[in-house]
Amino acid sequence: TRDVIEEYLNIQGIPVRIMDTAGIREVKDIAEKEGVKRSLRTMENADLVLLVLDGSRALHDTDRELVARSMTKNTILVINKIDLPQKAEISEIRAEKGPGKQAVKVSATERTGLDELKEKVVETALKGKTSYGTGMITNVRHVQALETALRSIEAFSGKVEKLSPEFLSVELRDALDAIGEILGATTPEDVLNKIFNDFCIGK
After folding, report:
1. Which residue, of 126, 155, 183, is where some domain finishes?
2. 63 with 50: CB under 8 angstroms?
3. Are residues 74 and 166 in the same domain?
4. Closest CA to 181 of 170, 198, 200, 194
5. Residues 117 and 177 placed together within one structural domain of the fold
6. pTM beyond 0.70
7. Strand, helix or coil for residue 78
8. Are 108 and 183 within one domain?
9. Which end of the chain is more exposed for a tag (fewer CB within 10 A), N or C?
10. Residue 97 near residue 67 (C-beta atoms within 8 A)
């Protein structure tokens, strides 16, 4: 692929935007060169880089360059194709990837090592090693609560010069209650009913 393909995942409750890029290698085709440029640009802008190397073949100079480039980034080194005979010099990779870099061995074909990779991603996020820009809400109830809060704030803004503080406080209270539903500060009866209907509590 020459394009950057984006997908959103929810890994243990943490929203993650995955950007799959073209392979970074020496190319002659103009279109493929553009794909490599996009890949490098995406890598530079990423909060976390999953640098995937083929463990079934020996390291190329391009692989070493990528490992060196990732030294300044928050990187998890992913050694793929561990279901095949290994030819990559893992000790060399570990020496080059520098202190603090993580490595995970996986087989995309046999789906082994993927749980460990997810754990590493979550661990990195929870340690605060990634920055957060725009977020993704994956819970429908949270989306509805945020929409309610937004409507209440907009209503407050439209009435701020027309009504007394007593009436305005109603809109603010509605907004706070809606946000409180997400944070767990308020638990209206319908929310409790929803929780008990969706989850087997006490079993």
Report:
1. 126
2. no
3. no
4. 194
5. no
6. no
7. strand
8. no
9. C
10. yes
CA distance 164 to 87: 75
Beta-carbon contacts of 4 under 8 Å, excluding residues fewer than 6 positions away, are 19, 20, 21, 22, 38, 39, 42
Could you tell me if 11 and 138 are in contact, meaning their C-beta atoms sit under 8 angstroms apart? no
SS3 17: strand
DSSP string over 108-131: TTTTBSHHHHHHHHHHHHHTT-S-
Domain of 59? 5-126
**CA gap 119, 11 in Å, rounded:** 9
Residue 13 belongs to domain with CATH number? 3.40.50.300
Q: State how many domains the chain has.
A: 2
pLDDT per residue, tens digit, the chain (203 aa), is 567 788 888 887 777 888 888 677 666 666 666 767 787 788 888 888 888 889 998 888 888 888 887 777 788 889 999 999 988 876 666 555 554 467 899 999 999 999 999 998 888 877 754 554 555 565 677 788 888 888 888 887 887 777 777 777 777 788 888 888 777 665 455 544 554 455 453 43
Q: Distance between CA 23 and CA 110 in Å, rounded?
A: 21
Residue 145 in domain: yes
What does the alpha-carbon distance between residue 18 and residue 6 come to, in Å, rounded to a whole number?
Answer: 6
State both tokens at 67: 């490992």
